[in-house]
Automatic annotation (TrEMBL), chain A:
PANTHER family: TETRATRICOPEPTIDE REPEAT PROTEIN. InterPro entries: EMC2-like, TPR-like_helical_dom_sf, TPR_EMC2, TPR_rpt. GO terms for cellular component: EMC complex. Pfam families: TPR_EMC2. It comes from the Eukaryota. It is found in: Endoplasmic reticulum membrane. Belongs to the EMC2 family. The keyword Ribosomal protein does not apply. It comes from Cyclopterus lumpus (Lumpsucker). This is ER membrane protein complex subunit 2. Component of the ER membrane protein complex (EMC).
Automatic annotation (TrEMBL), chain B:
Residues 4-138 form the MPN domain. It comes from the Eukaryota. This is ER membrane protein complex subunit 9. Belongs to the EMC8/EMC9 family. The gene is emc9. Component of the ER membrane protein complex (EMC). EMC8 and EMC9 are mutually exclusive subunits of the EMC complex. It comes from Cyclopterus lumpus (Lumpsucker).
Amino acid sequence: MATISEMYDVGWEEMRDKLRKWREDNCRNSEQIVDVGEELISEHASKLGDDVWIIYEQVMIAALDCSRDDLALTCLQELRKQFPDSHRVKRLSGMRLETNTQEKRKISILKAQGKNAEAIRELNEYLEQFVGDQEAWHELSELYINEHDYGKAAFCLEELMMTNPHNHLYCEQYAEVKYTQGGLENLELSRKYFAQALRLNNRNMRALFGLYMSASHIAASPKVSAKVKKDNMKYASWAATQINRAYKLAGRGTKESKCSMKAVEEMLESMQITMS
Amino acid sequence: MGEVELSCRAYVKMYLHACLFPRCGINGLLLSSGSAGGAVCVTDCVPLLHSHLPLAPISQLALTQVDVWCSQTQQRIVGYYQANACVSDSSPTPCALKIADKISEQFDNAVLLMLDGGKMTADYRLPPIVVYERRDSRWLLKDKHTIMLRHWEETQAIAGQMLESGDQALLVDFDSHLDDITKDWTNQKLNSKIAELASPANGNI
């Protein structure tokens, strides 16, 4: 999996500055702080000078928020070693103990027993207290999807997208939920979010196929204006080209994936025939 | 309604799919390379998803792609399989019924197969499957005597052996294919391995 510095082409100084900005602005984007902070402290701790301690504190708090207890403990241990008698560090210690692991265990058990409705209720209560717990929001969205409650699933994903604007997976999942809900308005939303996911990660194949399918369906709808039809056919056509290109690149080498490629080609052709 | 025969290859791949994603709902399509009349012979399967089973776009995409592949390879989609995340519940979910309905629009004797997670323990004797067929617009339990797994003990042994060797890691479902499109959802490599393990004396297994 790519590092933050690889994905966004940033150096450790920019990552450090980003963390500082988030501290100063009191941002609640815990997942981002964890992503950036974890990489910074594991790869560049020695370069950070005295900043490292406030970064450990910042990352620790964000880690608790994201139920990353492993990371929270690492940070806490470093702080304890450096500041053995500090009241501030004792307070952080207390924060960690308060994190409701009992509650989460109960929710896991309910899920394993298939008691989705109860798990949903418990998770909602949990999130009222720990509103920054990304994993919990995502679990809740999955539960709602399995209960076919797409409206509420969309709400959870909206929450996740708001706090994690760079995460292409949340955009793409949101788009899938909208597509599933159906209707022209939802299809148009789904196309927009598939496109957004692609902007964030141009190799997300689900987003690419999703863009193709949603644009094709919109173009085929009798309810849209000629302009909307034309625009969506353009998007669909662009997506089809990208899909073909991606499969051609993939096919170069293994003969098995040629099966997939041929199937995709034919599928795109047949879908176009029905869409026109 | 008619008989259904489940081949070793189809069973082993479904089994490995369920083992690869033990805490997830998984699903897939059942295929046949046999002729349309008479008993339904499920000769192969295509594992599809291990996440977000009820969501439409990827399911639609997968169905279309498998359909096209089938027409290129003289196969047809004859059924659907699913294993639920919760092992104590092997009843078909709304999304299972929906997809199975779609399949039965194209194939009269389509089957819906649920893997019973509760029965997939090391010492189970019978196939851990529950099969449904469509009668009077509803999906009803199929008579057990019309479901055949030839060479069941050998099939079970192969499945167990491959699980022990960790071969489920070789299985590619449609979800995994979308994560890395160089991976082959037709699972040719796995098919070869299964064929190797099946005793040559049994011929067309």
